[in-house]
Specification:
CATH topology of the largest domain: Cathepsin D, subunit A, domain 1
CATH superfamily of the largest domain: Acid Proteases
Bound molecules: 2-acetamido-2-deoxy-beta-D-glucopyranose
Largest sheet: 6 strands, mixed, barrel
Strand order of the largest sheet: 4-5-10-6-9-8
């Protein structure tokens, strides 16, 4: 496989209710258009996904019952696949057809590409949903579209049964995409943010799981793993205390659209902390590879770790040899400190190494993506509108 690829960094700009919201994704493309090494890799790794941990009722963690549904339903552990430490995804069924989905806490829609898609690139190895193969499929005929910086997905809103392992949602509102102009390592996206962001105006999958009493607790958790195709897991309906150290530190969701919270500071260890210009707002986003922030703050952090701006890629590069000497970055949340080590915040492709701290002109807050969560376990508490964070095992 050709590892020497051109690295293309682009941002996804999602328009939510007419307001522009920036989201980011890291993609690597070969110079031959549409030929992404990711696609081959993830097909190869697909079998690894079949490993399932089974039912895991965890009554010891989070002993307080939040809703009347507590005690019913189950907890499932959904294995994740890691692609280059920058993309994490798992397998979901839609109308009994299986798809590789990105579980995205930064959006609220569930969409898959349609086999009727005439404007999709069909040579990337992606799967397409066949309406004729599903008895439970219902189309509403209502159009939807989500616009990204690099293009858009468009289609119609429909519904079908959606399965996360043995956890089966009846009549999940889905977007059936019939226009999509880029190849992706996953087939579709399963959004885990709140309903207010939904472009298909559907009840998000996790709210459905709660409403249909499928999950034991209204909680899901992410444990991301680095360094191999084993991407860790997403736990639906609970948490697993074997996957983190010490107690969880809780921080309230300040606005239930994204998983928004108050980030007290980001500091480079040994360099002191700087006052924040971002108004301390941050979003926890599994669908973003890196850690993205306001231009000046990102500049200061990268300066402190000795990263140099590279105009070609609009990224801060570091020498790969320097990684062991680089400082730890400290994140202050809810009165506690969380850490990200250099081998996590430096992304390495061959001999090209760059800092995960990426800026975005005009961005007024921080987006903590996979680079943060690969070292820190996060429990997303849907009903209590809070997140529990602890160093990951
Ligand atoms: C929690 O995670 C550990 C480590 O991966 C695993 O061995 C254990 O089975 C999990 N517990 C449950 C109840 O799933
Ligand atoms: C939670 O609910 C379960 C089942 O309804 C019950 O057995 C348990 O005692 C409750 N726990 C608390 C802390 O209220
Ligand atoms: C694709 O979706 C759009 C709505 O975004 C709809 O107007 C159009 O008819 C659809 N095309 C096909 C071939 O289904
Ligand atoms: C978080 O929210 C809960 C419930 O709304 C509230 O009781 C608690 O005081 C909040 N915690 C902080 C630190 O604001
Ligand atoms: C950016 O990095 C690439 C790869 O190392 C290098 O070829 C290019 O010259 C760099 N560009 C700048 C402006 O430093």
């Amino acid at each position: 496989m050709n590892i020497r690829v051109i690295i293309l960094l682009f941002c996804l700009i999602v328009f939510v209710g007419g307001k522009k919201v920036h989201r980011f994704r890291l993609e690597r493309r070969s110079h031959r258009h549409h030929k992404i090494p990711h696609a081959h890799l993830h097909l190869q790794f697909r079998n690894a996904l079949r490993r399932k941990y089974g039912f895991t009722p965890l009554r010891t963690v989070n002993a307080v019952n939040v809703t009347s549904e507590a005690g019913k339903g189950t907890v499932i552990t959904e294995p994740l696949i890691n692609s280059y430490d920058t993309n994490f995804f798992g397998v979901v069924s839609v109308g009994d057809q299986s798809f590789t989905m990105q579980f995205d806490t930064g959006s609220s829609d569930f969409w898959v590409p349609s086999s009727h898609c005439r404007f999709c690139i069909k040579t990337c190895g992606n799967k397409f949903f066949r309406v004729s193969n599903s008895k439970s499929f219902r189309s509403s005929g209502t159009p939807f579209s989500i616009t990204y910086g690099s293009g858009s997905v468009k289609g119609i809103v429909a519904s079908d049964n959606v399965g996360f392992g043995d956890l089966k949602i009846q009549n999940q509102g889905i977007g059936l995409v019939n226009i999509s102009d880029s190849c992706s390592v996953f087939d579709g996206i399963a959004g885990f943010a709140f309903q207010q962001l939904s472009m298909t105006k559907s009840v998000p999958p996790f709210q459905q799981m709660i409403d249909q009493q499928l999950v034991e607790q209204p909680i899901f958790s992410f444990h991301l793993k680095s360094g191999s195709s084993d991407g860790g897991s997403m736990i639906l309906g609970g948490s697993n205390s074997s996957l983190y150290y010490g107690p969880l530190t809780y921080t309230n969701v300040t606005e239930a659209k994204y998983w928004t919270f108050k980030l007290d500071f980001i500091a480079v260890h040994g360099k002191g902390s700087r006052s924040s210009h971002s108004g301390n707002k941050a979003i926890m986003d599994t669908g973003t590879s890196l850690i993205v922030g306001p231009v000046l703050e990102v500049l200061y952090i990268n300066k402190d770790i000795g990263a140099k701006h590279n105009k070609t890629y609009n990224l801060y590069t570091v020498s790969c040899e320097s990684i062991p000497q680089l400082p730890i970055i400290v994140f202050g949340i809810a009165g506690k400190e969380f850490f990200v080590k250099p081998h996590t915040y430096v992304i390495r492709y061959d001999n090209f190494c760059f800092s995960a701290f990426m800026d975005m002109l005009g961005l007024q807050y921080w987006i903590l993506g996979d680079a943060f969560m690969r070292e820190n376990y996060v429990e997303f508490d849907w009903a209590r509108r809070r997140m529990g964070i602890a160093p990951a095992v």
